[in-house]
Amino acid sequence: MKKHSDTLITRRGFATSSLALGTALFTPAILRAQPVDTTAPTGKIERRVSSFRTHDWQDHFASRKDGVILVDTVSRALHYWKEEGSIYKVYPTSVPLTPELTRTGRTKVVQKRVGPDWRPTPNMLKRNPELPEYVGPGPQNPLGTHALYLTWRYYRIHGTNDTRKIGRKSSNGCIGLYNEQIEELFNMCEVGTEVRVI
Predict the structure, then answer these.
(1) pLDDT reported for residue 85
(2) What is the DSSP string of the chain?
(3) Of residues 93 and 18, which shows the higher confidence score?
(4) Residues with Cβ < 8 Å from 59, sequence gap 6 or more?
(5) Which residue in the list 55, 79, 158, 189 is annotated as catalytic?
(6) Which end of the chain is more exposed for a tag (fewer CB within 10 A), N or C?
(7) Quick check: 3 pLDDT over 50?
(8) Region 62-90: what's the mean pLDDT?
(9) How far apart are CA 192 and CA 151, in angstroms?
(10) What are phi and psi of 35, to 5 degrees?
(11) CB 77 within 8 A of CB 54
(12) Is 189 a catalytic residue?
C-alpha cells in the first residue's frame, strides 16, 4: 500500500475505480432518450452512438405545429421535436423485419391509447396462423403499455414488453419503443402530431 497526498491507494480500490471507468467508457451513451441543449449554437443533438444519425426538423417538416416525429428506420431511431422547440428527444426503436413490411412517407397521430389491445392483421395471420386472434392489455400484449395510432391502418408507434426487440429489425410494420420511453413520448405528443417515416 502507498499513501499519496492523503489518498490511500489499494489494489482493491484501484480495481474498483478501473472497473467503474471501463464501464463508463464502454456503456452506450444513448440507452435513454437524450435531450438537446437548445442553447447550443447549432441546436442539434451530438452524435453519441455511431449508428444514430442526427437530423434537423427543417429538413423534414414545414413547421413543428403540434410537435413532429421523424422515424429513421435505417438508424432505428425516433426523433421528436416539441412545437415550441423546448424539447428534442431521440429514442432507440425496433423497426420492421423486411423492406416489404416497412411503410415510409407521411402520416399523423390520430389516437392515443393507454393499455392498448392487439389483434394481428390478416397478413400476419397468413404468415403465422398460430398467433392468437386477440390479446388484451397486459404483459403479454405486443403493443406494451401505450400506443400512438396513425392514419395508416394497422401501423402504430407503441411500447413493447419484449425489450430484446429494441434496436433490431423485429416488427411486422410498427415502430416499437421501450415502455418507459413510449410513455414519455405519449405524454408529450398530441393527436394531430405529424409523423414522417424514412
Answers:
(1) 84
(2) -EEETTEEE-HHHHHHHHHHHHHHHHS-TTSS-----TTSSS--PPP-STTPPP--GGGT-S--TT-EEEEETTTTEEEEE-TTSS-EEEEE-BEESSGGG---EEEEEEEEEES--B---HHHHHH-TTS-S-B-SSTT-TT-SEEEEESSTT-EEE--S-GGGTTSEEESS-EE--HHHHHHHHHH--TT-EEEE-
(3) 93
(4) none
(5) 158
(6) N
(7) no
(8) 95
(9) 10
(10) -75, 155
(11) no
(12) no
Cell for 56? 434537423
| 146 flagged as catalytic | no
| pLDDT tens digit sequence for 106-150 | 999 999 999 999 999 999 999 999 999 999 999 999 999 999 999
Q: Which three cell numbers stand for residue 197?
A: 417515416
Range 31-60 average pLDDT: 55
Q: Dig out the grid coordinates for 11 from the structure.
A: 489494489
Query: Which pLDDT tens digit goes with each residue over 78-94?
Result: 999 999 888 999 999 99
**C-alpha separations of 185 from 33, 49, 147, 179 in Å:** 10, 21, 10, 10
The whole-number pLDDT of residue 94 equals 95
Phi, psi of 138 (to 5 degrees): 140, -175
* 78 touches 157 (CB < 8 A): yes
